[in-house]
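the two lines:
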Amino acid sequence: MIELRGVTKAWPGGAGVQALDLSVPEGECCALIGPSGCGKTTTLRLVNRLVEPDAGSIRIGGADALKQDPVHLRRGIGYVIQEGGLFPHRRIGANVATVPALLGWNAARTRARVEEVLTLVGLDPARYRDRWPHQLSGGERQRVGVARALAADPPVLLLDEPFGAVDPLRRAQLQAEVLSLLKHLRKTVLLVTHDVQEAVRLGDSVALMRGGRLVQHAAPAEMLAHPADGFVAEFLGADRALTRLGLFRIRDVPRDAATVAGEALPEATTLRDALSAMLERGVRAVPVTEGGALTLEAVLRSR
Amino acid sequence: MIGWLRANPDAFLDALLQHLALSVSGLLIGVALALPAALLLARRPVLAEWASAGAGVLRTLPSLAVLAALLPLLGVGFTPSVVALALLALPPVLLHALVGLRGAEPAAVEAARGMGFTPLQSLLRVELPLALPQVFAGLRTAAVQVVSGASLATFIGGGGLGDLVTQGMALLDIPQVQVGGIAIALLALATEGGFGWLQRRWERA
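prediction for all of em together
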């Protein structure tokens, strides 16, 4: 787990972080959001000590991060930045093997692990290992970035706007895949994003920052339903109620037994998409593939 | 011209070999000074700024002026000529290497730090490899300048193809002057072409 207590960092120009308390339980993903200059990236970089705090304590997995050698600390934390930050002069295999090489793993162990993590992120090792970063698409580079961060199997990962450079069509799928992988591997993740939709979709909790302070830290559905103040409400957007419906699926709410005409929706459909279907069809209920019907009243009661 | 060459093959060969010896020694010493200096300065922006300014000044000075200025300090002969040529080679290599090191893809450098490279590991394994095209461009410029500059070594008794020109002038032996001048020009062109070829070959690899 990651635990920041009273962490303060002042920059000469302002825009640091002030007396920040934030904890991310083991195996969970916390999404840091906020307007630019709110201190979210500084917060992320404080965890692996790319930024040194002026005051406060930082604990990772129970150990005091500020008492460790920063270089050693960073080798134990996965780090993914926008576009992956791959080394353009190294092949994919060598890129992925970066931290194992720093840790002095032998060739056989490194090679096996490179194959393993490339497979995990959905890239065929035989096809990708010997390619150069510039031969890959933005999404593929991002997958390699994640594979590289996972190579030495760190318990904690820091992701800094990891999906920013991926084309919008592929982004949602890549996000879902990467996060379900990290969840499956029980990684503790701190994710920085400026995209509200991304934050609520990926985070077990969302931490909203403003001017170096944490304004609200809550589960996404909770924050969308009960913004702490006007700023949070405005930042989440006027469509926050719709965003919130996007977090629930038809299977999460009670269904009506009545038979309804029209094309049926699978129960994995989000309530947001189901509501959109009702608006499009001008109806108050839609049939569900697995049986029964979803009514407008059930959607309204979900809040 | 051909007649002079036929009559004095040994004199020509001596001058050519001397010229090459001057150039290669000067270039190697210059690079041996400039590269470590660039690596040391890469992470010190203020010092790097000063060094760049100094190298810029050194680059502006005419080669003949440098040779003349060194004369009272180092005397005449081969060694002072090599020192002067090393000074000529230093600025382009240093300037290009600094530009390359400081311009190395920021995302890659940031990732290197974040994954636990020590500053030295990042410099040698990430920043330097990424700066190599720039370093090579500096090397090419330096090599051409050194080969051209070596023709002035004759003025402080350093030898080289310049000797053919100065001696020819003194003896009013125009063919000898021509042989010297054309050989210098061809050598400079060959250096430029050779390094350019290496650079293209290497970029394709």
